[in-house]
Amino acid sequence: MTHNTPxxxxxxxxxxxxxxxxxxxxxxxxxxxAATEIAEQCRPGGPWQQLLPGVVLLHPGxxxxxxxxxxxxxxxxxxxxxxxxxxxxxxxxxxxxYADAMITGLAALTLHGFSATPPLLSLDHVDVLVPRMRRxxxxxxxxxxxxxxxxxxxxxxxxxVAPVPRALADAVADLTDAEAVRRLLTEAVxxxxxxxxxxxxxxxxxxxxxxxxxxDAVDSLVAEGRAIAEDRLYRMVHEYGLPDPVWNVDLRLPGxxxxxxxxxxxxxxxxAVELDTRAPRQEEDALWSEYARKREHLERLGITVVYxxxxxxxxxxEQQAAVVRTALMAAGDRDPAxxxxxxxx
Length: 345
Description:
Elements (H helix, E strand, L loop, with lengths): L16 H5 E3 H6 L4 H7 L7 E4 L2 E3 L7 H12 L25 E3 H7 L14 E6 L10 E6 L6 E3 L2 E3 L2 H9 L5 H13 L5 H10 L6 H28 L6 E7 L5 E9 L4 E5 L8 H17 L3 E5 L1 H6 L1 H13 L11 E4 L1
Parallel strand pairs: 5-6, 11-12
Antiparallel strand pairs: 1-3, 2-3, 4-5, 7-8, 9-10, 9-13, 10-11
Helix pairs in contact: 5-6, 6-7, 6-8, 7-9
């Protein structure tokens, strides 16, 4: 018995379909296929082919998009993981664990269901995110992207995929077309994939906000996100039976200074709601200080300020309505607020 042949070969028939078609040479050896046989099968015109270094496609002809993705992960995943299949289950027979590797960039966005991205087979390369210390080089259609800390992957069609904000940042880093960037960012928000703040945070960390075409797209993104959040705020008030506020107003002291703008205000109860749609760029601390100063000033005047984020409006609208309702009901137990002038914004 050669050193390439395991003592107890595992039959290929026990693997799920795509994992019977794309395997590493190490995996083939665990299934009893010697290195010499692998080389023979992968000869020109043979029944197998080398898809990537150390990764074999077990049929002739071009790979499918699914095979390309699994091949990319097999090539980049930490070495110990691909050879150790996860425990089988009825839904996932012998699915491998792709450790320290995930699909990102345009391929990830396509997997997440974006319509503004190209079909998987038309992509020149598949981006795979790995830890910075991994010693890997991009090769063939696989482009290796390194990061100091991997985000928690999301599982899409059985594959580890970067979350939308990170996948967007990795895709935008490679795009010079301003319209393409704008389409991707707009779809991310309009399609409900993520909030603008999460996208801007990733773009900032990737140092992409110095690019004019990215900044322009981000400005549109933030405006898009605010419009969606405002619409959800209107829906919250009406769907959960809150009294009608005055919308989009500025407050001033009589004959005095401007106190700030508010998205909704209930004058009789002196309760205000403001959407916190800050984009977390470098000046986040300064922006938050401004928010805090305004809130402190208003509350000294007896006005209760409720800050609501777009994410909370999307994911827990009923809970946010309860917070506002509680503030309105508590108004009768507070000292009367100072008189303020309410002006349209």
